[in-house]
Please model this.
Amino acid sequence: MKGKIRMVLAVMIAAFLLTGCGGAKIPLAEVFQQEQLEQQAMQIVEWLNAEEYERVYETFREDMKEVLPTEELKSACDETYGSAGAFVQVNGTEVNGQKIEGEDYAVVMVKAQYEKQYVTFQVGYDANMEVIGLYMK
Model:
């Protein structure tokens, strides 16, 4: 189990480094559809904005559920953008592929605008389209 938790963290760290540093974009594996990834990530942002944490939690892979229960998810949202004001709009998305230890992953970055600040959501997916990581900044 510790190995899976480390994998979740490793994927999200890799995703952060990839999207945060503006490095070369890694193409998606054939198992992923970019439009589906973008739609599902934007749905997660919509649920987070509506405080429907249980719906977001249900998209998580089992190891992710252990790492980020709904109470901690709510707390992370409150801390990251709780005082940002009302959601205004999505200002764009970016999708990147990842390959870690021979497994394919995808990371979707959703740039959201709120009344008082911008928030970037990064959602990591495995080949089964289960969420393996969620990062907000």
About this structure: Residues 37 and 108 are 7 Å apart (CA to CA).
